[in-house]
Amino acid sequence: MRTLTYFIATSLDGFIADPKGGFGDFLFEGDHMTALFEEYPDTLPAQAREAMGIDAPNKTFDTILMGRATYQVPGGLPSPYPHLRQYVVSTRLTTTPPDVEVIAESPLARVRELKEEPGLGIWLCGGGRLAATLLPEIDELVLKIHPIVLGKGIPLFAGDTPTTHFAKATTRTFDTGVIFATYTKSDT
C-alpha cells in the first residue's frame, strides 16, 4: 500500500502560509535547501527542476494532492508538477490541463483508491483544510519547521480534526535553523 505524506513547510507556531496564502517569510536559501534539492527533488515544481537541471526519476513521490489555493498560488503554472500525477481537490475549479485531475467530491475515498494503486508515495502538498479532511489517511508528516513565528495565517490543519497520534521518526537541524521533522502515524 502506498503512503500519504503531508510534506510541508510550517512556522514555529504552526502556520503553512500567511493569511493571504503567501509564504515569502519562509527561508529559501541555506543548507536546508541543499538537502531538499538532493533528497526530495520530486517536490520541486517544473521551473525549479529545469533551472537546476534535475531530470532524474522520482525518488519518493509519483503523485501530488493539492487544494485549490495551493494549486492556484499567484504566479503558478497550469501544470506545476508534470513529473507527478497531479490532483487538485476543489468544488470550484473547472478548467485544468489534461494532466491535472480535479477531485470535486469524496477526497477521502479517492485517496483510499490512490493508496491501493501500485507506485511511489503520494505527496499532500497543501493546504490546511485539505490536510484536516485527509488526516485519517495521512501516514506520515514531514514538517520543514522554519524559525519564524507568523502569528496568524493558514494553519497546518484548518478545521475540526480528531485527536491523531504520530510518533517521531527522525529530526534534522540545519544551520539556517530549519528543522526537518518526520513523524509516522502511531496506533496509540
UniProtKB/TrEMBL annotation:
Q: Which InterPro entries match?
A: DHFR-like_dom_sf (IPR024072), RibDG_C (IPR002734), Riboflavin_Biosynth_HTPR (IPR050765)
Molecular function terms, GO-annotated? 5-amino-6-(5-phosphoribosylamino)uracil reductase activity
Q: Where is the Bacterial bifunctional deaminase-reductase C-terminal domain?
A: 3-180
Its GO biological process annotations read:
riboflavin biosynthetic process
Q: What is this protein called?
A: Dihydrofolate reductase
Its ancestry begins with: Bacteria, Bacillati, Actinomycetota, Actinomycetes, Pseudonocardiales
